[in-house]
Amino acid sequence: MPAKVTPFPRPVINAPMAEATSVRDLASAEKGVLRFLTCGSVDDGKSTLIGRLLYDTKLIFEDQLAALKRDSVRHGTQGEDIDFALLLDGLEAEREQGITIDVAYRFFSTDKRKFIVADTPGHEQYTRNMATGASTADVAVILIDARKGVLVQTKRHTYIANLLGVRHIVLAVNKMDLVDYSRSRFHEIVASYLAIAENLGFDSITPIPMSALKGENVTRPSEAMSWHGGPTLLEHLENIEIADTREAGPFRMPVQWVNRPNLDFRGFSGTITSGSVRPGDDVVVAKSGKGSKVKALVTADGDLPIAHAGDAITLVLEDEIDASRGDVFSLRDSRPEISNQFAANILWMHEEELTTGRPYILKVGAQTVQASVTSIRHKVDINTLDKTAGHALGLNEIGVCNITTNQQIAFDPYRSIKDAGAFILIDRFTNQTVGAGMIEFSLMRATNVHRHAMDVSKAVRSNLKGHKPAILWFTGLSGAGKSTIANLVERKLAGFGVHTYSLDGDNIRQGLNKDLGFTDADRVENIRRIGEVAKLFVDAGLIVTASFISPFRAERDTVRGLVDKGEFIEIFVDAPLEIAEKRDPKGLYKKARAGQIRNFTGIDSPYEPPFSPDLRLDTASASAEALAEMVVEHLRKTGILVTASDESLDFSI
């Protein structure tokens, strides 16, 4: 739906304020906090505008004003006059260049409202900083230099504001004094902007002509622009009505930490991101499905009868259930989605391109997982907002991507609950934040499926068998000896009375994966299915041997993420290509060299050896029997093999 834009010269009339439903709402209605950001292209006057707001609302102390006057002479661009931009351009580099680099936050208030304003950089290089400011803003003030009109960065900031859920736009056409306060120029710019923005779905777009330097239409009406019958910027910001949708949403509380100061108290601490909760409510851990009733809502100031979005609490339950940092609590009848595959908008923030298949760290709320972009559905052309094809995202580019994580996460679409659908991508080696994303929807066909908690758990099944479960993942080139060693290991374990099962590449492709070929995409799907099957065997309490080339590290890491820590043992069966090719028990290398087999690992498809496997078996220097014994000894040392007489075993349900 197009945004509401009232014909000139009247301003946008916002929707009536929702009826207050509590004392909390009434207090907010009287004098709430409005978060807004200023953005646009370089040198559009953003810092000057905020400096003028602070100056005109008399929120600058005398010593600050004196320092500002001195700095204006030294660094300013207005001769002997005050340069209001210097109030926010605090970095020396910014003052020397006359541009904003960092995000500068300022607090000020009037009789009607409190404000938190973010002055964001206009330079394309610092688009990531603008996204930071937009992520918490209610209103975006998009500045346009009246001389230059709508620029590419204007369009980019508008689109990012929309992606990040900003619902209200103020189109501040600045520096009108430099175009002789031309009404026609103002209307021309507004028409150009609306051609891009009015169909993005903003609730309102309010155009205001102004001169931030002279203070015209900032806090006082402009005599030179008497043709503008709308409000000043400050008047509009004081009166715009912003609905807080967090309170009306379903209850969500990510666990920040498990609070257990002594043996008599155990609670789950975190900040409620959506909805409300009260004692007696039936809550569940979203991923596991384990549930209980709320016993108390504990805070530093005492227990609460009800807790709302934004409250930091410790949730105390009537029953002991397993939950840890990253888990998300919800009401039993309104759970978030659980998936390891979803589509998302991504704003790329790094000079090195985002490419499909490369592993990253994904952080959503308190959950941290490994992830990779499996495909780029399309990129967005900032100039036209058209969708274009692409196989990579460059710096400041925006695209809709399919993402896979190595374990399931709990989330809500970003449009429903911001904090539950926003994530960042982190480079695994440099630890730099390289992208910001907003989840659109799950790629699972069934979105109403939730895990059902079972009374007979993995631990119970494991204890009944007298040993711990694990996946012994044998990886290496074809002909390295994976299946041979895995078979010997299983024979030895069976002799000890250990419950095992063997998964082998050729056997799996006889049934479960007979529909898959050997392209990179099919190889990834092959390992994904095998990992899910291996996970089920681990849940049953078995030790499962899995012998697969599994050439890609990311896919092996994905399987590792499916089970608990210590349950995935990566065994690198290391045989140089020349040795594996000499063995060639199936004649596959010969066919690959002759071009009869395509995408063969080691010939025309890569193999990525483990960086730090749990075990490395050198088949060139030891017999298969000796290597199998090394694996069994590793299981003893790590505590996987235990006896049924172990006093630590617990058979209670």
Describe the structure.
This protein is an alpha/beta fold and 653 residues long. It has four domains: 23-239, Rossmann fold (3-Layer(aba) Sandwich), CATH 3.40.50.300; 252-331, Beta Barrel (Elongation Factor Tu (Ef-tu), domain 3), CATH 2.40.30; 337-442, Elongation Factor Tu (Ef-tu), domain 3 (Beta Barrel); 458-637, Rossmann fold. Helix content is 25%, strand content 27%. The chain has 17 helices and 29 strands. The strands form six sheets. Strands 7-15-11-12-14-9-8 form a seven-stranded antiparallel beta sheet, with no helix packed on it. It has a six-stranded mixed beta sheet with strand order 2-3-1-4-5-6, sandwiched between helices. Helix 7 links the parallel strand 5 (168-174) and strand 6 (204-209). Helix 13 (520-539) runs parallel beside helix 14. The longest helix has 20 residues, at 520-539. The model is unreliable at 6-30, 88-102 and 643-653 (pLDDT under 50).
What's the short story on this structure?
This protein is of the alpha/beta class and 653 residues long.
What are the defining features of this structure?
seven-stranded antiparallel beta sheet, alpha/beta, flat, Elongation Factor Tu (Ef-tu), domain 3, disordered C terminus, six-stranded mixed beta sheet, 17 helices, Rossmann fold, 4 domains, 653 residues
